[in-house]
Amino acid sequence: MSFEVLSEIFTLQNILMMNIGLFAGVIIGAMPGLSVSFAVTVLLTMTIGMNSIPGMYMLLGGYVGGMYGGSITAILINTPGTPNAAATTLDGYPLAKKGRAGDALKAALYGSVIGGLISAFALLFLAPQLAKLVEVIASPEMFAICLFGLCATISLSKDNVIKGLISALLGLMVCCVGLDPIFGTSRLLFGTRSLMAGFRSVTCMLGVYALSQVLFECNAARARGDNGNRGFEVSKPTLRLRDLLKYWKTILRSSIIGVVVGATPGTGGAISAMMSYNEARRASKNPEKFGKGSIEGVLAPETGNNAVTGATLIPMLTMGIPGDAIMAIMLGALTMQGITPGAKLFSAGSIWVYAIMGGLIVINIFMLIQGSVFIRLFVNVSRVPENILLPCIVVLCVMGAFAISNSLIDVAVLIAFALVGFLMKKFGIPVIPFTIALVLGNLCETNLRRALMVSYGDPMILVRRPICFGILLLSAALLIYPSISRLIKGRRSKKAGTETKP
Amino acid sequence: MAFFIMLSLALIFWAIPTQIKVTAMMEAESFTPRSFPYLIAGGLLLVSVIGFFNNFLAYRKLLGQETEQAGEEPEEKKSRGEILFPYFIFALIVVYGLMFKFLGIVPATLVVPPVILWCLRCRKWQMYVAFFVFAAIIYLLFTKVLLVPIR
Fold first, then answer.
1. Residues A232, A98: contact at Cβ < 8 Å?
2. Residue to substitute from B3, B40, B77, B111, interface A, most A β-carbons within 10 A
3. pLDDT tens, B14-56?
4. Domains in chain A: how many in total?
5. What is the extent of the structural domain holding A300?
């Protein structure tokens, strides 16, 4: 079995796809304003027509590379390429100001690679165990898990859970378009027969994440004109691996944080990076150096954000529940390939899932090589003016959407969802719950209906089953928690305000 | 929020009843093809109403604060051009899609993206060359490698 997996991983095509994905991911991640989900969505257009394993390697390469790429501009121009690298700016930029940009970039690379490797091993060992547990889950529990996944992403929009809920409900409504999953009745088609199969989640995400970015960034690109991002030059690194491994406790702690955060639906690299940074500062012997250019302050967030890359695959591969937007895109890509993630992937004796998990380890190793060899190239590419990128994105998205099913209806859907994504971002409605709902909608409805069929229409089945009820309670708690914590904070600050007043 | 209230009402009273046909056999089931959309639309209505009242209360609170802080400098506002520019780019993308449909991808790509580049204040000819090289590579990748029948 292990030999079969290795021979499946190490084919020329797979290695090529891993490296193309990584290269593109690092470059896109390094460009301020373009997120990792954007990188994965854009790469998705290239995987159409490919076999599932090289296609997944390309997407995983984009994911891992994008996570690391964000650190380049965070260090050199004090602007995180992606939100995941926000914590890296705190010490990365001061290091660059001291003339140690090379050291900071090296620490970011090594931290990312080690975090990614630990996460990939965690995936390899934990996912099969979790899959065994998941196999005994029935429809009511599956519905509850879907709901939990949705609530977890909604709860991330702390400032406004209402908007998060609206976003998720809109996504679920979009899922209702097409044929009913049980009776096959057409729903909400308004005479458009070409939408019988419903909206393809991949096309919608291409519009919401990639093409909408053009609309969102066009003002900034126009203002900058032909001027690219300037920043510090990359100095020759003086740090050796031995110097970095002195911080093994920080690396290990950040990796564990990343794995735990990544495996929890609704979280992501940005949270993990910030938590890792705070923990590293709290546990450090020299906390006063943090924020002034500490290598540990770069190592911790970069290890933390890349340590989520493998862990986020755990709920996606074992239960088919995407933990974040990137996983939702990958789930869409898998569905397009005809692969249904879930516990059966592990029990069916297929090597596919092991090839994917093993491939993630290899991708991290390739990242070390690419990061060491091409760092100057990545830095220069990240300085390309944004105005040339936007038309390239338009062309890529339109051709990619057409390629999904060789149909112009996908191009129309892409353009419509670009506007939807732009308006959502403009009015502060989070996009992530919408896209997660797009992927989970059908699963959610099918399992709810199956559960109700089993109970002859009695909805109390969801309450009578203890695991299902527990998950539903947890989901409700996730939704209520942000409002309650805000209320408590408000009262505390009010109280503090009245106490300070004479 | 008012938009979402209207949307959910339109879904409940017009779109779902007229666009989802349910036969007598389906009616006998506890969960018809209309049930899930009704559930979602009902949820949307409830959440939008809560959101509407929330915003109303927040607005009233803000009004009170504004009278207290009268005289402070208002935040810098976007010009009309800045507000409309994304919609102009969107219109160009729609034109690109239509040209793709009626004329094919090559003429569409030769015309619309350079206009977008020009609108984004790109004045270096090298950028236009770089764009066309990129577009050609992508076209070849899709048509020759991924065998997508793009016209």
1. no
2. B40
3. 999 888 888 877 777 778 888 899 999 999 999 999 988 888 8
4. 1
5. 2-138+197-408
